[in-house]
Design goal:
single chain, 7-stranded parallel β-sheet, globular
């Protein structure tokens, strides 16, 4: 049984991952913005078999709170075996609004990187652990439909590559989970993109990474092949595609 802290625990994918962890009998610390939603998720996980479920409220955008949040989770759990960073926003207004772009970068990159750094440092001091961070296939190539969002995830990917190399000698595994389009509330008011996957399927894949880490993983796996083709497109062709 593992001791796992989940940031952004009320998101659809994180909730599904937590359900898989609960079925294994893991101890979970759920961290999110909404206390009522956290309580509801915690109650559900307790019924599903979690050894123990803790909750804490955090404003992810307030970087000053990150160190205390990680330390508190570590104290309450008695140590952190694995952590998941799953919070983020999708705002297509960022393609044309500098203020929206700045907010998107702060949430998806700066805030996530700050938490990853704090968690990685705590795990290194403790002698090891696994850190899984949710990213997106949108980071693989700039596209006219979501280049602001893709840029925020691309910056996160490069940061995680460096952090992975920095922490590997200390026995800390840093995992970049590259998610394809997933049926979550983020897509509620948008047409379903091709090859969209269920939150349950993707969440189960994330849970597997928490227990059996790899450096990088596409979820679902078929996106590895899809993105190989997307990256190989010549720029003159990519500019003409309406995607």
């Amino acid at each position: 049984m593992a001791r796992i802290v989940i940031y952004g625990a009320t998101s659809a994918i994180a909730e599904e991952a937590a359900r898989s962890c609960a079925a294994r009998g893991d101890t979970l610390c759920l961290i999110g913005r909404n206390a009522a939603r956290l309580t509801a998720v915690a109650d559900d996980l307790a019924v599903r078999g979690a050894a123990h479920v803790l909750t804490a409220v955090l404003d992810f955008e307030d970087l000053e709170l990150h160190a205390a949040s990680v330390a508190d989770a570590q104290r309450q759990l008695g140590g952190i075996d694995a952590a998941l960073i799953a919070h983020g926003v999708l705002d297509l207004e960022a393609n044309g609004d500098p203020a929206a772009l700045a907010h998107l970068m702060h949430v998806n990159f700066v805030s996530a990187a700050s938490l990853a750094l704090r968690l990685g440092q705590a795990m290194r001091a403790a002698g090891g652990g696994t850190l899984v961070v949710l990213s997106s296939v949108a980071a693989e190539r700039g596209r006219r439909s979501n280049f602001g969002y893709g840029a925020s995830k691309a910056a996160l990917n490069v940061f995680l590559q460096g952090l992975r190399a920095e922490l590997a000698p200390a026995g800390v595994r840093v995992v970049t989970a590259k998610l394809g389009p997933t049926r979550t509330p983020m897509l509620r008011h948008r047409p379903a993109p091709p090859l969209v996957a269920s939150a349950r399927r993707v969440g189960r894949g994330v849970a597997r990474l928490l227990h059996r880490p790899r450096d990088e993983a596409y979820l679902p796996a078929l996106w590895g092949a899809v993105m190989w083709v997307v990256r190989a497109l010549p720029e003159w062709l990519a500019k003409r595609l309406r995607w």
